[in-house]
């Protein structure tokens, strides 16, 4: 069985194994033992509430309880850009016109921006290839929204997610080759490694501050602005289901889109509900339990947050889970849990 839970100090080796599977383009999850160890320490302090909310980095792992293997990882950073610069390109528009010549042109531009500084960030989502089936990806990605809905006071009003940008089959970034290489004079993977280690001062030192015309870039670079890596497309769809959307900000290296939302407008904030664990709770639907709508269910314990997906449905403020599910959540009958339908309702109740 699978459970998403708060990471703990014993997960470092398994986390390194997951990071070794990721590949390039995800700067927050590199197979660097010291970096992962430091991040794990911050994550443990975050769940223990021994550091301020804006410095927290909540990391969650998906555990296969039958084998003890880690199947995936994801995270929420309390706020970005407060200790080190947080850069993006903002896509803008410049208009040039001449009434005398009857010429009117609209040009897309890229502005180097720190606009998203201070936002809460969803990051580090990775599911091991062996587990990419069924509802596993949804369980891992959407666990973070249930956590935010349970503890909204810990996060800022704006939520963002930087998506991995498009890469060619050989692993190169057409956008970086068309723009970044001219300023950094190093290959994409080297820049990727430097940013993952927090060495970002070179961005401000080397990147031009004036807006750049998109039309001046090679066609291959222009075509991938705002596009995601092939393996990231499902993750983008899941985030958009939960209320995030693209507002014209992209990564400065690979031009991957930055999705945004107001925390107060997330589906989980609107639709998730508390429910009391009750063995005698009546099911919401009749008939074959296999046809029941899948639900996300989490405990309400910040220090030992745990979440599962179940076919049990809440009814009248109560939900019945079997003994195995109670064990996964470390809950007992009478405890309160938080519930959310795994998939957005197509026909909301009136």
TrEMBL record:
The record's section on InterPro entries has:
Acyl_CoA_acyltransferase (IPR016181), Arg_succinylTrfase_AstA/AruG (IPR007041), Arginine_N-succinylTrfase (IPR017650)
Q: Which UniProt keywords apply?
A: Acyltransferase, Arginine metabolism, Transferase
Look up keyword Transmembrane and say if it applies. no
Q: Which NCBIfam families match?
A: arg_catab_AOST, arg_catab_AstA
Q: Name one GO molecular function term.
A: arginine N-succinyltransferase activity
- Give the EC number(s) under which this enzyme is classified: 2.3.1.109
Record-given protein name: Arginine N-succinyltransferase
First-tier enzyme category under EC = transferase
The record ties this protein, via Pfam families, to:
AstA
């Amino acid at each position: 069985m699978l459970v998403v839970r708060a990471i703990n100090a014993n997960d470092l080796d398994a986390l390194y194994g997951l990071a070794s599977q990721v590949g390039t383009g995800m700067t927050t999850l590199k197979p660097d033992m010291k970096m992962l160890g430091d991040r794990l320490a911050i994550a443990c302090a975050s769940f223990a509430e021994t550091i301020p909310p804006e410095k927290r980095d909540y990391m969650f792992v998906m555990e296969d309880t039958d084998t003890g293997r880690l199947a995936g990882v994801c995270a929420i950073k309390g706020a970005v850009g407060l200790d080190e610069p947080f850069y993006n390109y903002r896509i803008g528009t410049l208009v040039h016109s001449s009434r005398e010549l009857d010429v009117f042109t609209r040009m897309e531009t890229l502005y180097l921006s720190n606009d998203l500084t201070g936002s809460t960030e969803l990051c580090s989502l990775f599911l091991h290839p062996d587990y990419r089936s069924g509802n596993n990806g949804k369980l891992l990605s959407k666990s973070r929204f249930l956590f935010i809905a349970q503890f909204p006071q810990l996060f800022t009003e704006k939520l963002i997610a930087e998506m991995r940008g498009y890469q060619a089959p050989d692993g190169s970034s057409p956008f970086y080759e068309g723009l970044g290489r001219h300023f950094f004079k190093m290959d994409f993977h080297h820049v990727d490694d430097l940013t993952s280690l927090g060495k970002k001062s070179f961005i401000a030192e080397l990147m031009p501050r004036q807006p750049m015309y998109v039309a001046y870039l090679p066609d291959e670079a222009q075509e991938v602005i705002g596009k995601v890596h092939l393996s990231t497309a499902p993750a983008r769809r899941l985030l958009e289901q939960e209320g995030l959307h693209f507002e014209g900000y992209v990564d400065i290296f690979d031009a991957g889109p930055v999705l945004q939302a107001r925390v107060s407008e997330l589906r989980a904030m609107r639709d998730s509900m508390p429910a009391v664990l009750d063995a005698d709770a009546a099911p919401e639907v009749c008939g074959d339990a296999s046809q029941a709508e899948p639900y996300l269910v989490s405990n309400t314990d910040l220090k030992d947050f745990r979440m599962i997906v179940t076919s049990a449905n809440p009814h009248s403020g109560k939900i019945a889970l079997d003994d195995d599910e109670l064990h996964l959540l470390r809950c007992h009958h009478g405890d309160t849990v938080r519930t959310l339908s795994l998939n957005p309702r197509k026909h909301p109740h009136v």
